[in-house]
Every structure is written in C-alpha cells, then in structure tokens.
Write a structure and sequence with these properties.
- The chain has about 325 residues and is of the alpha/beta class.
- The chain has 10 helices and 16 strands.
- The protein has an 8-stranded parallel barrel with strand order 1-2-3-12-13-14-15-16, surrounded by 6 helices. It has a 6-stranded mixed sheet with strand order 6-5-9-8-7-11, covered by helices on one side.
- α2 links the parallel β2 and β3.
- The longest helix is centred in the C-terminal third of the chain and has 15 residues.
- The relative contact order is 0.14.
C-alpha cells in the first residue's frame, strides 16, 4: 500500500473557508488546516470553520489536524494610502514618520549593515542613522510604492520585541477552548520564548504542542536548543530570507531539516510552495523541484498557501500530491 509520508499543510483563507471547499480540500489530501491569525478579524467565524474541518474529517474518515499560527510581533506599515518611494531619497520610519508603522519600536543598537525591507523585500532601504528611540532615517535602494499594512522587516537593529504578546495569549486561550491540535509561535528567537505559553497552559490545565517558526537570525544561532525545547519546527523561508542573506536560506533549510530528523522532531518547510498555482493551473518547473527537494531532504510536511483550485479539469491538488509521491512509496 502506498503511504504519503510527507504531509500537506494548507492555509484556510476567505476563498476556501466554506463547508463545501473544506470538504474538497480534505478529499484532495489536506492533512493539516492552518489558521493564520495575522489576518484574523471579527467577521472571521473561527468556531464555525473549526466545526467544518472536524465534521469533514470525520465524514471522510481522514485525520486532519488544525494548527493556529500566531501573528507574533509582526511589524506592518500603518499608512492609509499609497506611499511613493524614490530610489536614493531618504525617509523616516517609525511612529508619526514618513513611513509609519503599527508598533512603537525602541531602536537600540545599530549595526553598520542595518537594513529595512518592506512588502516581502520589494522595497529595500539602508539605515542611515537613529533619529530618536522610536524613529530611524533610511535611504531607499530602489523605487516603488508602499500599500497599506505591508510587512516590515528590520535587520541589524536591536528592537527588543518579545515573541509572545498579549494578543497572542488571547488567541492561545481561544485555541485551548476549541481544542486545536497545534500552535505555531512566530519569530521565535530562543527556547525561553515558550515560557509565557507554558505558564498559561499551567493556569488553564491544558497543553497544546508548540511549533517554533524559524524566521530570525537569532533563531539560527540557537537552533539546537530551540529544536530540543519545542514540539516541532517550521522553516519560514519568507521572513528568514528577508532577515538575512537570501542565498544562505537553501543550505540552512537542509541543515535544520537534518537536525530535526536526527532528533525525531517534526519539521515543516514553508513559504511560496507552488505559489504560482494561486492564479495558474500548473506549477513552474522550479516550484516542482523546490517541493521535491524539501521532500528528499526529509521534511515531514510542506505548507501551501491555499488549495483553492480544486475542481476539474486541471486538478492542481493532484500536482501537489504528485510531487509528494516522488519515490516515497
């Protein structure tokens, strides 16, 4: 009998949160449903979605886990309209700045190679100097536009942000109440980042396995202790590639997977897996090689943005499955 050893983690978004779509995703092979709390809002009926996943899993005789992905200290722009950026021009970044953000950062140590990247690296800046404890001056390395609520990655600056905030703790209480299967902690930097969660679990007299998302250079420096302390590891290549040199990510991915395999810790490889299939019926050859490489390296699961193209005739979810079958029978 053929057994798929590498699992599919799929994000439940607005386009695939209905009962019928979740049914199709379960039939197609979704093993873990990911709820991204970074985009959680009051009109997102989480209890109903969880109910749909549980009932569909039972109806089709398939085991589908539910993972809550916490937002963590994600920095985003707080502009209400487009900001036009011109290469070579200087701007301020922070509260009440040219480029305003949603977090009152305290800029501490500043290294010579400090950089800022916005909108998944589409816009890059060099940090010129610290204007105040809450604002820095940056110089644009390319031109473009910044839309509202775009992600901001800052490297080479000591920001002192905790990995778990009050909102995360409230979401964890919600996860406990709904008896979810996994909780993923964003921007983990050390093994002690799970301490506030463990204290909450102790008060609630309930525990849920914790996944450490590896997306900071600090996590790479302490990767062994993090692997030992957490229940699973998720290699978030997107933010990791923005926080450090992009060319280092492939070798780091292999090293982390190998370490997890040696410790018998589940490891998920994520970010831009078959991403072009959001709008295209077939993946690129590079994407197929990327997913296959993650499987060959020993990933226990790959994380897809969303399996939204389920219907015939293209059946791209079979492409995802086909890649996962590579010689693993």
């Amino acid at each position: 009998m053929n057994i798929v050893r590498t699992k599919i983690v799929s994000t439940i978004g607005p386009s695939c949160s209905s009962k019928s779509m979740i049914n199709k995703m379960v039939i197609a092979g979704m093993n873990v449903a990911r709820i991204n709390m970074s985009h959680y809002s009051s009109d997102f009926d989480l209890p109903l979605i969880v109910k749909h996943i549980r009932s569909s899993s039972k109806e089709h005789g398939k085991s589908v886990a539910i993972m809550m992905d916490l937002p963590g200290p994600k920095i985003r722009t707080s502009n209400q309209s487009l900001i036009t950026i011109k290469r070579g021009h200087e701007y301020t970044l922070g509260l009440d700045a040219d480029i305003s953000i949603n977090t009152n950062l305290k800029y501490n140590k500043l290294s010579d190679n400090a950089r800022v990247k916005i909108d998944d690296g589409k816009l890059s800046f060099r940090v010129v100097k610290k204007v105040s404890t809450s604002r820095i001056r940056i110089k644009a390395l390319n031109s473009g536009e910044i839309s509202p609520r775009k992600g901001v990655n800052i490297s080479g600056l000591d920001l002192g942000l905790p990995s778990i905030n009050k909102k995360d703790l409230e979401y964890i209480k919600l996860a406990v109440k709904m008896d979810l299967d996994w909780i993923a902690l964003s921007f983990v930097q050390s093994k002690s980042d799970r301490d506030p969660v463990d204290k909450l679990f102790k008060r609630l007299k309930k525990s849920i396995p914790l996944i450490a998302k590896i997306e900071k250079p600090e996590a790479i420096d302490r990767i062994d202790s993090i692997i030992n302390s957490f229940d699973a590891i998720l290699i978030a290549r997107g933010d990791l590639g923005l926080e450090m040199e992009l060319e280092k990510v492939p070798s780091l991915q292999k090293k982390i997977i190998k370490k997890c395999n040696e410790k018998c810790k589940p490891v998920i490889t994520a970010t831009q897996m078959l991403e072009s299939m959001i709008s295209n019926p077939l993946p690129t050859r590079a994407e197929v090689n990327d997913v296959a490489g993650a499987v060959y390296d020993g990933s226990d699961a790959i994380m897809l943005l969303s399996l939204i193209h389920i219907s015939e005739p293209t059946r791209p979810e079979r492409i995802a499955y086909g890649v996962l079958w590579v010689e693993k029978k």
